[in-house]
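Friendly challenge for the regulars: who can give me the structure tokens for this chain first? No prize, just bragging rights.
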Amino acid sequence: MVSHDVNDKTPGMLLVARLHVDLCRLNSAICPR
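First reply, four minutes later:
Bragging rights claimed.
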């Protein structure tokens, strides 16, 4: 059941990671350092 729970959360984590990368790109584009 634990492995099933992890597999079920994996797609969500990938989406969060992709959103995080997009936010970082937008942030760097808006406020370049």
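The chain has a mean pLDDT of 76. The radius of gyration is 14 Å. Your move, everyone else.
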